[in-house]
């Protein structure tokens, strides 16, 4: 139901195009029974092939293999719709400043969706302080620290 509310244009696509895209998504190892399948179909219907290819090249610049891009797509299809500048800024911070491997971000693609200034940098700063004080281990769950909601983070 949320797809209908949030992405109504998906339902306006021609039947043959929907069938073709659904088959392509299914061939990428998506389970048609899961919500991520509908998200992937939605992304593929809304995003042109040249844009998807361009986006893949952005991730390849960061050393992602085709398999890692596919893994990211199966975990969170919408990461293929993020802007190049946003992806570059977040990847630069996480890889260059925080020392995470590019493959770590590929495994947790939703990290790319969070605001660098409002969420990622402040939370990573807290993480660095906790590591420096020996309260947690280095590299301990960066994705969890960034992804959890505000209330849980503050506890």
- Record field, number of beta strands: 0
- The amount of beta strand, in percent, is under 5%
Average pLDDT level:
87
**Overall form:** elongated
- Structural class from helices and strands? mainly alpha
User: Count of DSSP helices?
Assistant: 10
Question: What is the end-to-end distance?
Answer: 33 Å
- Biggest β-sheet, characterized? none
Percent of residues in helices: 55-70%
Following the backbone from N to C, one meets helices and strands in this order, namely HHHHHHHHHH
Q: Radius of gyration over alpha carbons?
A: 17 Å
The low-confidence runs, each spanning 5 or more residues with pLDDT under 50, are none
Description:
This protein is an all-alpha fold. Helices cover 65% and strands 0% of the residues. It contains ten helices and no strands. Helix 2 packs across helix 3. The longest helix is centred in the C-terminal third of the chain and has 17 residues. It is elongated and about 60 Å long. The two termini are 33 Å apart. The mean pLDDT is 87.
List the helices and strands and how they pair.
Blueprint: H1 2-6, H2 15-27, H3 35-46, H4 49-61, H5 66-75, H6 84-97, H7 102-107, H8 116-132, H9 142-147, H10 150-154
């Amino acid at each position: 139901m949320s797809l209908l509310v949030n992405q109504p244009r998906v339902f306006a696509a021609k039947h043959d195009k929907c069938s073709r895209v659904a088959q392509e998504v299914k061939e990428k190892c998506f389970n048609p029974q899961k919500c991520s399948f509908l998200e992937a179909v939605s992304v593929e219907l809304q995003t042109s092939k040249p844009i998807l290819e361009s986006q893949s090249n952005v991730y390849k610049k960061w050393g992602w293999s085709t398999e890692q891009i596919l893994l990211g797509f199966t975990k969170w299809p919408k990461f293929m719709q993020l802007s190049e500048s946003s992806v570059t800024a977040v990847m630069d911070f996480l890889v260059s400043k925080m020392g995470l491997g590019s493959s770590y971000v590929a495994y947790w693609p939703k990290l790319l969706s969070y605001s660098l200034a409002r969420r990622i940098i402040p939370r990573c700063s807290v993480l660095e302080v906790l590591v420096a004080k020996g309260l947690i281990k280095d590299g301990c769950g960066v994705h969890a620290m960034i992804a959890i909601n505000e209330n849980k983070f503050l506890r």
